[in-house]
Amino acid sequence: MLLAFTRRLPTGNWWWKVAVLGTLNFGAFFPLLFFAAYRLPGGVAATVGAVLPLVVLALSALILGARPTLWSVGAAVTGVVGVGLMVLTSDAAIDPLGVLAQLTGVLLMGTAVVLGKRWGRPDGVSLVTLTGWQLTVGGLVLAPIAFAVEGAPSALSATNVVGFVYLGLIGTALAYFVWFRGIERLVPAQVSFLALTNPMTALIAGFLVLGQGLSPWQLLGFLIALGAMVAGQWQPRQAADRHLS
What is the C-alpha to C-alpha distance for residues 53 and 213, in angstroms, rounded to an integer? Predict the structure, then answer.
């Protein structure tokens, strides 16, 4: 839909760049994400996903030449500890394939964040257009796999259509437009720390919507993760300049 709205295609080397970003962000990441969700308890998946800041810090050093600071590394490790306290339980099962899928997905997402920062976007091309390019690539990668494995839906109700429209427009197009805008305007490490809001939001929603209780350890983990996320947004001036240069 975004591609039809913008009516613009990539040119030059942006064909392969968009192919890489679209595959990393969607075509490969989504299957790994949901495979891990099926194989792992939510707490284990969230804890493994919390290593994203560490991955982005390492990739930023390799690709952008931005040496991580002890402050940022400490905040990243603290975030993993906080998420673990929030969501891990004593009976959490560890599935090796699920953990591998989640770690691979985190690596792909971190690579996409850093490459997205390095490449930026073509002159004169809007962020809506760039988002549409990447989503189209992701769809082209996923559609044949989905039809080959699962086939077309047997029927579509009005409720299904509403769900597809919501997921397409709000949960994907708008959400990733905002995500890519953050990558464009922020240091990659700052963007990656925002991923800690996923388990934090789930914890709050479970308490408010489902009436789930909160243990003292969960509250402590929430505060630790929140502190790590806030600390990750603070970058020493010299480090921020190196990221953006």
Answer: 29
